[in-house]
Amino acid sequence: MTLQEIIAAENCNTDRIYLYPEGVFWKAYERSAFAFVRRISRYKITKRFIKYLDTEIVSLGFPDTSRTRVLGDRPVQTGPYGMLVLDGGTIDPAAYVRWKEAIPLVVARTATLPPPAAAPVAPPPTFGKSGGAPRSGTSIASVAPLVVASQPVVAENRTSVVEAVLRDLRNFSVENATPLECLLFVSSLKKQLNGSL
Length: 197
What we know:
6 strands, 16% strand, alpha+beta, 43% helix, 6-stranded antiparallel sheet, elongated
């Protein structure tokens, strides 16, 4: 089930708690999350802005290993897509909206990169003892390009790595990934950055 389908179902939800399987976790979204914290347990709620849906989404989750402890002996039905369905009581739409608005929005932190290491600088041209002209075979023009050329190569390499990481980050669908896949993805981004910088 896509996140878009989940949100559409949640917009019509009036009295149920839908728990959606995501990897080794169970997640509740929107009205289901509201009913869950009211009737079952006060779990930490996360509110994020989902760009491709152009909306803010609230959710909570817990691992399958703690399912029995969390849900206890409440009657649970199995719904489509392997979801769990529980009685949520009547969900008051106005109370839900007030509750959702009060939750702070989680803003993704942008990775900050360390400042670039200073590029090695070629020594200044050595002049003869008289201080007038350079030694034979050495000119300022032949030394200056070494200083200028070394820094842009480092900057270009750093920029291409950062752009590749940002591109991968933008293309990664965190909404459809399991927590383990997210962890592995972040680890691969760190390796990319650390290996190239």
